[in-house]
Amino acid sequence: MAPSFNDESSLFNFVVKDGYGVKGLVDSGLTEEKALEWKDYVSMRYTNDADALEFWPNECKEVALEYIKTSTKMVKKLLQALIGNLGVILDDSRLDALMGFRMVNMNFYPACLNPELTVGVGRHSDMGTLTVLLQDGIGGLYVKKSENTSLGNEEWIEIPPVHGALVINIGDTLQILSNGRYKSAEHRVLTTSVESRVSVPIFNSPLPRVNIGPLPELLARDEVARYREVVFEEYMNNFFSNSHDGKKSLDFAST
Ligand SMILES: O=C(O)CCC(=O)C(=O)O
Ligand SMILES: [Fe+2]
Hints:
By secondary structure, this protein is α+β, with helices and mostly antiparallel strands. About 25% of the residues lie in helices and about 25% in strands. Bound molecules: 2-oxoglutaric acid and fe (ii) ion.
């Protein structure tokens, strides 16, 4: 089932998806994606506690709810600090609007006999403000070192699993809000033939109807806007209607 974000009423409470495939499928015309990702996932959108307990899968709803509620406090503090560092103080209602759309995914990457033929997750940046990611001890998450390296020369660094640690990714929205001062992290997941892997990201994004663009306080200091203002829902629809291709998602909001 493909998630649809076209209107508020069609926003899903949870989605289950699987898709194992190899690169050759593109050429056969079977799919637009360059590689079907070698993973299963359950995606749960948080609206309120009662809906989560009613609609999320019984096996994980309580722990997922606790995880999302605890991490929300941390994400708020991080956003306050990061945006504060730009000299902009956001009040609670502006902050809440920037992280009011929250999803927790449970990803399962089965071991793959021919890992070189596929990917766990293709190179991409996350679309929201901040992603909080819990990974197990297997490894396989890589982040691209620098945006400026030429394609032939790019360097990927593995983010090693550290017991008890969370990975925090900057997403496209924070890049746009900060007018490019913060860069969203381009990352990917490689599969292995040895062991299956589990990860649990929480995506924090603006509410669908919120406009995102460089913070007016930054532009008031005569900065040139590198991004135009867009409704987050449109950014999200564009993000989901294309397969992962590095940071191309940002082109939608570029001036
Ligand atoms: O599994 C991971 O470590 C990362 C997953 C990811 O990047 C995503 O779901 O957006
Ligand atoms: Fe991601």
